[in-house]
Design a protein that fits this description.
single chain, about 100 residues, mainly alpha
């Protein structure tokens, strides 16, 4: 479940950052600053997912990773990563709202 969830977030945020980067070329220039800022937030969120995988020893499902995932220190690391991802996501949404208000 961990790999699937992390992979889904990583992929979705990467595509969001790419989409917004391309949208800048097709939308009014007044939106560019905020769209690029949102794209950067999503790219950062994508990178955080690699840290989530690293916290349990990498991608893949084996017994060692399952045991690592159960360790309290690993879970604390993941909580910090999840909170950072949440903050990047909220920041990106704010940038998109500002862009749409232009």
């Amino acid at each position: 479940m961990h790999d699937d969830a992390v992979g889904t977030v990583a992929e979705g945020r990467w595509y969001a950052s790419t989409f917004l980067g391309e949208a800048v070329h097709r939308l009014p220039g007044s939106m560019a600053e905020h769209l690029l800022a949102a794209a950067a937030c999503y790219a950062a969120e994508h990178d955080l997912m690699w840290k989530a995988w690293a916290a349990v020893g990498g991608m893949g499902r084996d017994e060692a990773r399952v045991h690592t995932l159960a360790e309290p220190d690993t879970r604390r690391q993941l909580v910090a990563i999840i909170r950072s991802a949440r903050d990047r996501d909220a920041e990106a949404a704010g940038h998109i709202e500002h862009a749409l208000a232009k």
